[in-house]
Structures are given as structure tokens and as C-alpha cells.
């Protein structure tokens, strides 16, 4: 049975999604798409050469869809670039992957994606999320501590042990979306 708070939140999300699916939603998505395309154009060459910050910028520009891919989001492409940056020790990319794999892929003011997330949820891999958030915290990301503590509090002992084993050999851990969620 759903709690009244959960039911209210879902109803609010549905109303919000309906409101944003009209003209305002199209304008917001169009602006995000234009901004993302500009960031992608500015960073493609440097990312291809291996620049971790540029790879992060590409990944962040593609990140992240809830449900199907749309013009402004492509989680598979996002994780391809985020993983390249994270594997070089780039803390913001590690943080972003930790949030993504903890089931919290949407950041910022994308209310339509937030509403979809609230309704549909997102896949998660808590041990990998633990690994990436731990690495981000160790590498100095100031935003990693709070979600890391929340995640640990929400994990079973078995999930934490799996996360710790990933940390021990983090560069060999699965990273890209299709490898993490193979068959889903």
C-alpha cells in the first residue's frame, strides 16, 4: 500500500510532467539541446585526444535519460565519455557515475526528467555506485560525501562488500551502461 506522501508526490509529478510536456517543456528541451550541442562541439576534439575534462563535459552533456533516449539525453553515450574521464581519476566524472548508478541520474532543473524518474524509477547498481562515489570523495570531489553516506546507509552488508571489492580493483570494474546493465 502506498503512503499518502508517496501518492501525493506521484500525483504532483504527473501534473508537473503534463504541464512541462506542452510549449514550456518544448522550449526547455530545445534550450538544453542547443546548450548540449554547443558543449559537445567545443569538446569533441579534446575528448578524442584523451582530455579527461573534455570527456566529462561530453558525458555530462549527454547525461542522462530516464526511459527512452530523446534529443537531449543519451545515457549510453554519456557513460561512454564519463567512464573514460573517471578511469583517468577525474573526480567530477566519478561523482556523476556514482549518482547515475545509485539510481539518481538527473541533476539540475530538468523537471520533466525528474518527474519521469519519480514515476518510473531508474536502474541502479549500488556496489558500483559505492565504488565511484568513494573514488570521487578520495579524489577531492566536495559533493560526494553526502550521497556516499546516504548510499551506504541504504545498502546491505553484501552490497557494501561487493562495492569494496570493486574499489580494490576499480579500473577493471564494469563502467559503461551496457556493460553494467547487460540484458536490461
Backbone CA Rg: 17 Å
CATH topology: Serine Threonine Protein Phosphatase 5, Tetratricopeptide repeat
Mean pLDDT, to the nearest integer, reads: 79
Strand proportion, as a percent range, falls in under 5%
Distinct helical segment count: 10
N-to-C order of helices and strands: HHHHHHHHHH
Shape: globular
CATH class: Mainly Alpha
As a percent range, the share of helical residues equals 55-70%
The largest β sheet comes out as: none
- Name the CATH architecture: Alpha Horseshoe
Low-confidence stretches: none
Oligomer: single chain
What is the count of structural domains? 1
Terminus-to-terminus distance: 27 Å
Count of distinct strands = 0
Return the structural class: mainly alpha
Structural description of this entry:
This protein has 184 residues and is an all-alpha fold. It has one domain: Alpha Horseshoe (Serine Threonine Protein Phosphatase 5, Tetratricopeptide repeat). The chain has ten helices and no strands. The chain has helices at residues 4-20, 23-48, 52-62, 75-86, 91-101, 111-120, 126-138, 145-153, 157-168, 177-180. Helix 7 (126-138) runs antiparallel to helix 8 (145-153). The protein is globular. The mean pLDDT is 79.
Amino acid at each position: 500500500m502506498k503512503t499518502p506522501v508517496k501518492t501525493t508526490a506521484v500525483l504532483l509529478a504527473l501534473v508537473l510532467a503534463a504541464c512541462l510536456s506542452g510549449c514550456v517543456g518544448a522550449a526547455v528541451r530545445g534550450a538544453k539541446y542547443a546548450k548540449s550541442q554547443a558543449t559537445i562541439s567545443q569538446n569533441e576534439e579534446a575528448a578524442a585526444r584523451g582530455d579527461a575534462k573534455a570527456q566529462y563535459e561530453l558525458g555530462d552533456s549527454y547525461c542522462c535519460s530516464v526511459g527512452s533516449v530523446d534529443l537531449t539525453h543519451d545515457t549510453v553515450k554519456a557513460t561512454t565519455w564519463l567512464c573514460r574521464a573517471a578511469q583517468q581519476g577525474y573526480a567530477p566524472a566519478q561523482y556523476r557515475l556514482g549518482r547515475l548508478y545509485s539510481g539518481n541520474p538527473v541533476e539540475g532543473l530538468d523537471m520533466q526528467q525528474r518527474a519521469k524518474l519519480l514515476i518510473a524509477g531508474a536502474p541502479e547498481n549500488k556496489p558500483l555506485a559505492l565504488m565511484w562515489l568513494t573514488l570521487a570523495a578520495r579524489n577531492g570531489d566536495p559533493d560526494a560525501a553526502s550521497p556516499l553516506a546516504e548510499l551506504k546507509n541504504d545498502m546491505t552488508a553484501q552490497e557494501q562488500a561487493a562495492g569494496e571489492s570493486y574499489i580494490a580493483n576499480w579500473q577493471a570494474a564494469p563502467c559503461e551502461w551496457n556493460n553494467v546493465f547487460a540484458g536490461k
